[in-house]
Design brief:
alpha/beta; seven-stranded parallel sheet
Amino acid sequence: MSNDQPCGALLVGSVPLETAEAVFRTAAETLGDRLSRIPDGETGDRAGWVAWQGRTFKLPGFELVKPGPDTYPPTPRFRPLPGTDPAAAEFGELGYAAAALDSYATFARLRDEGAVPAGTRFQVSLPTPLAPVAMFVVDEAQAAVEPPYEARMLDELDRILGAVPHEDLAIQWDVCIEVWMWERWLPAPFAGVEQGIVERVARLSDAVSAGVELGLHLCYGDFRHEHFHQPTDAGVMVDIANRMVAATARPVDWVHLPVPIDRTDDAFFAPLDRLVLPPDTEVYLGLVHSRDGVEGTRARIRTAQEHLPAFGVACECGMGRRPAGRGGDDEGLRRLLATHAEVSAPRGVPA
C-alpha cells in the first residue's frame, strides 16, 4: 500500500456558482496547484447536464409525447410524425460552442491577470451525442436521429477547436448513458452493445485534435447525491476504460471513475487491479463526497491505494445538483473543494 496522498484533482464539469468567472476564481484559489485544467462550471441553463438540450429536439415533423408507465427515463420525449424521416433531422446550433467561446474569453483574461495559474488549461465537458438522443427521443427513433445529432455535435466541437488555442484546451466526453446501456439498465438503439459503445466513443475522441488534451468521464448518474443505479463494483468501469482507451487512436490524457460514498470495502476496488492504461493516462477516482468530508474520503483512498497506487481525486459526478449559487450553499461548495485540496498533494510535488 502507498502512504502517499493522491496527486492532483479534477473538476468533472458542473460547479454550481453563478458565473463562469466565479468558478474560475474559486477553483484557482482553492485548488490552483492541484488542477491541470478548469471547466467553466456549466453555469446557467447548462446546470442540469443535458436537460437544456430538450429544446433542440423541437423539430419539424416531431411531436412531444408523454412517457408510458414503463418508460425510462420517465420524461416526455419526441417522436417523429408519420411520413417524417427521422434520419433527415436537421439540428441548429446546440449551444455548446457558443458557451465555450464565451467562457474561454473570461478564462484567458483571468489567466493573463494571474487569477488563474499559468499553464492551466480550459476544460470543455461535452456529453456524448447518444446521451441527449436517449433522453429526448423515443426508443424506436433513436438509431435514426443519433447520426445527424452527432454530426451537429462534431460541428460544435470543430468550432471550439478552431477558436481556442490547442495548447490552452482540454475536451472531456461525459460517458454516462453508455454506462447504463453497458450495465443493461437502459436499452441501446443498436446491436452489439459493448462494441457499439466503444466505437462511438473512440470516434468522438479521435475527432479531438492533437495537442488538445482529452479526457473521459465515466458516470453512473447523480440525483440528490445518489447514483441512479449502484454499481456492484468498479469492474464495468475498468472494462469500459480499458476498451475505450485501447480503441482510441490518439492519446487519452485522463479517465475518471466514480466511487459510491458507502464503498470503502476491498471488493469494490479490487477490479482496479486489471486497469491497463498507458503510463501517461491519468486516473481520477471520484471518491470525494460532501456528506462525509475528509475522513470519509481518506477511508476510500486507503482502500483504493491497495489496488491503484497512483491517482488523483474528484467528485463522483459534476457538482451541479448541489444547492449552491443564487443564495444557495456556496459555503458548502467551498468546503467540498477544500476537501479535494486537503486529501491530495499538489501536482508535480511529492506527497
